Amino acid sequence: MSTTIRVLYENNHDWLCQWLRRRLDCRDEAVDLAHDTFLRLLRRPDEVPGIGEPRAFLTTIARGLLNDHWRRRSLEEAWLEALAALPVEMAVSPENLVSMQQELQHLDAMLAELAPKAREVFVLSQLEGLTYKQIADRTRLSDRTVKRYMAQGFTLCLTLMC
Asked: What's the whole-model pTM score?
C-alpha cells in the first residue's frame, strides 16, 4: 500500500465509517462499504496523489458504492417478493434458489456496466415490459435516445454471452 493511501486511510477511515453508518443504519455494512471505498483507491493509485479534498473524494466513491448497494438490495427484495408470490406447487428447491440468486447477481453486475440512464431504460424495457414510447415518456428522453440506450444494453448482453 502506498504511503499516501495509508495516510488517507488512517486519517479518514473512522470518519467514512460514521458517514456511511448514518446512511445505512448498520455498522457492519458501513464498515464493509468503507473497506470497498479504499479498495477502489488501491485499484487506481494514480488518482490518489492529486486529491485536494480527501473527504469529498472518498464521499464520491462511497456514494457510488451506496447506490450499487441499494440497487442490489432493491433487486433482491423484488426477487424475494416474486418468490413469495409463487403458488406452493411451484416452490423452488434451495439449490435452485442459490443458482437463481447467483444469476441475479451476475445480471446486476452486467447491468452495472451500463451508464445509469442506459441501465434504467434497459430495465424498464426488459423487466417491466414497457414500450420504447412509454420509456421515453417516463424518463423524459427522446425516442432516439431510448433506442440508443437499448442498443447499448443489447450489445452488452451479446458481448457477455459470447
From this structure: 0.59
